[in-house]
Amino acid sequence: MNKNDWEFDEKISFEFDDHISKSIPGYIDIKNICIDVCEWFISNDSVVYDIGSSTGSLLASLKDTYVSRKNVLYKGYDVQIAMKGSNYNGQDVIFEN
């Protein structure tokens, strides 16, 4: 496969998080810092937007971490339809493009 044949598809979406964590130094640390910082911003009745959410793994982690916060809507946006929430299909997480 040459670089012009590569595209985001269902197969790529399920490998994406693993690929990113290996390709970007400190990716897991950055994600964890985002989760920690969000403690100050996610409260009851919040709406959390993730622009460029890819597989939704950050939103899933936020939802799991702040499960005690009530009536929070997590919304992920990504231009790649194949990426939309492939790793998380939670009831309160919505993915749109």
From the structure above, extract its key features.
3-stranded parallel beta sheet, globular, 14% strand, alpha/beta, 97 residues
TL;DR of this structure?
This protein has 97 residues and is an alpha/beta fold. The chain is built from 3 helices and 3 strands, in the order H-H-E-H-E-E. Strand 1, helix 3 (57-65) and strand 2 form a beta-alpha-beta unit.
Task: Kindly describe this structure.
With 97 residues, the chain is an alpha/beta fold. The chain contains 3 helices and 3 strands. Strands 1-2-3 form a 3-stranded parallel sheet, with helices on one face. Strand 1 (47-51), helix 3 (57-65) and strand 2 (73-77) form a beta-alpha-beta unit. The chain is globular, with a radius of gyration of 14 Å.
Helix and strand layout, with pairings?
Blueprint: H1 10-23, H2 27-37, E1 47-51, H3 57-65, E2 73-77, E3 93-96
Parallel strand pairs: 1-2, 2-3
Physical arrangement of strands within the biggest beta sheet: 1-2-3
Q: Summarize the main sheet.
A: 3 strands, parallel
Name the helicity range: 25-40%
Query: What is the structural class?
Result: alpha/beta
Strand content: 5-15%
Question: Ends: how far apart?
Answer: 28 Å
Radius of gyration: 14 Å
